[in-house]
Please model this.
Amino acid sequence: MAEVKEAVKERSMVIQKEMLAELFTELSTAKEKGRKVVYTFVPGNLTELILALDMLPVYPEINALQSGMRKKSASYIKDAEKMGFSEDVCTYVKCDIGMMLNGNIGPTGEKLPDPDLLLLSYTGCFTFMKWFENLEKLYPGVEIAMLHTPYQEDGRITEDQLAYMVKQLEEEVIPKLEKVAGKKLDRARLAKMLDNSSRAEDLWVKVLQSARTVPSPIDSYFAGVYYMGPLFTAFRGTERALEYYQELHDEIMARKEQGLLPVTPEGEMKEERFRLVVEGPPNWTNFREFWKIFYDMGAVIVASTYTKVGGVYDQGFRHDPDHPIESLARYCMGCYTNLSLPQRVDLLEHYIKEYKADGFLINSIKSCNSFSAGQLLMMREIEKRCGIPVGFIESDLVDPRYFSYANIKNRLESYFQMLAQRKTILAQQTTTEQA
Amino acid sequence: MTGIKQPPARLAEILRTCEELAFDLEFTHAKAWRKAADDRLLVGYLPIYVPREVIHAANGLPVGIMGVGDHKRIIKGDAYYQSYICHLPRGIIEMALDSNLEVFDGFLFPAICDCIRNLSGMFKLAQKGKFTRYFDYPQNFKEHIGGTFFRELIETVESDMFKLNGVKITPERLNHSIGLYNRNRSMIEAIYDIRQEFPWRLSAVDTYYILRAGLVMPVEEHNAILEEVLELIKLDHGEAMDNIRVVVTGSFCEQPPIGMLKSMEMAGCYIVDDDLMLGSRWTQGDVDDTTDDPLGAIVTAFLEKSPSSSAVYDVGNPKGARLVDLVRHRHADGVIFCAASFCDPALLDRPELQKACDAAGIVHINFQFHENTGQFKVIKEQAGTFSDSIKLWV
Model:
């Protein structure tokens, strides 16, 4: 296994670290302070609603990925499998359930509080529904709110779908949140938070779009998963998130201005050899080693679909304080995994062209059919439409049994050789044409 | 010869026909029906449930596409799916890329998992059928919320069909179709009721052939078959074996190979209920076929009379309790959990269903399969041991 050096931290990273530490401290004292806790999912999350009612969100997927990064997931998964979960099913679910079976200790070593409400924002992933059915059994009697988000099967959000979502939110979800919170929703406060969200989203999009520059000042996948954290989870709508994104934005614009390359755990990259668009979530158990394979080869991810699971903001969507509930509904339906396959292919094609990518790579995740089913056809479509080399590797979210470092490295090295060869040929063709 | 009464010859003849139709992956019978008139439509649907009454009322034939099982070699399909995705969609893509699904006018992909959902997108990308819909039925069960959404969803499909053949679905037409499917479901339940008492008169495999054949023929024809079968199995024939009775659950989408079902029965387990053809048995009871708003009746039936299913959010009506009720109702001795490999909905439900069985003192075993699994020795041994242990100890 490759040796990884100590990470270099920028100020935005420090801010984010502080935000997370504060959140987990708040969570650890939530019960004694009488704060209500809501378990919910990242795609289609309703964070502003939760925060506007002074409740605290917990994201089981985030717990699972944190467990993966902290090397705890293997034993959690085994414990869930002992309980009867098949080896075949989603490892996020098993890791989360295993963590609960082991005391529900969060990433800071403090116990996470039990939920007062399970808010199933069922967006873009069928397994979410099964996950919450299982959680409901683990927390008997817990309050439950279900938001069924229709899939954009026809490549658009229809009026019927929007009306269905708004009715669910107004008549079921919000009343349930209010019941658990013990107070009425302050709509003005919600609007203010959505305004904050929208402003943070503007900054986030500028961060993402900085990667259009050659060379790119950011890595939109490996670093992108850190950048997206506050907006995709417990902080969207807060002043603190706005502060974070302003800092991040300023740092990255400064890097862009200076022509600097992305920051990696081992410092700044010195050369951008390949620009890639990546489809699929990363592996979390070996995240740093995985990333290192790329930056060691001078490969920068200039756009990724995973950084759109919590919202496809770069295609124009913003939370709207003037239409709060409707915009929350549109947000849920617009998350990446709620897009139809033709929409996904169109988006990827757009990224490849817009971000001047040399290649397209799929990291296919064993656990995640929402992403993985259909990826091989998507790959063929992209190859056909864009004529660039495509690559395909396989791993898992948090099950280390499905991360084979040697196999992935071999495949990626072959892929990078292919990209290098193509670049040489294209350069020769250009020279010949000019002559 | 012993004194065992032989099955009626007519039953054997029906079973031969049904077996042939059930596994005719060219859908010859359905395509011939379609070709007989220009305004007919062939609408393929995947497991589990679509309101077939609506397709019938639009002069369409709803055709259940349940995968290729071990009846078609997968050559191209494997190139479209990773090894860790269930087998069903690769067979369906194989059929779509070959000629099997030609002549079909449209396809419906019910909302049961992410694989089926994304398969709908693959059909769109590959431009298969004149319309393709992900049939995203509601997980909200209030009439004015989920019900309204479901009605609009069905109306979208109605519109898709109307554009193709110009047939307007009147209340009279839809009530007539509802009546036919009510009759269909009630006869299927009657067959299960007889089998509960006399499972040797019609094996689980034979029952499966009869139900699966019903997915590829007009309901009128299937009703005629069911009427005959019902009469024939009321006649005393066959011999009771010293078998246990089991409920098989978890096979509602990808179907187990016939050899697997045979192995279970041969090993001493009468399958007295199952979810193999759950879509054909979806509504628990009749849909009202006497109203001015038959579409509303279909919607209400979905909201209020859907069965226990891994595809439907179970809050307020837990699946575990419903499985226990089914076992009790069928006087079954145990449960065989029989899910396709990599089937998230079935496999994620399994631990809680098993816990519910344990709490109720119901014994169970567990198998996983692919639709083209070819080795049944282990399954037969396990099912045999399960049967023996129940006979000896429970």
Notes: The domain at 22-171 of chain B is CATH 3.40.50.11890 (Rossmann fold). Chain B touches chain A through 55 residues (CB under 8 Å). Chain B has 14 helices and eight strands.
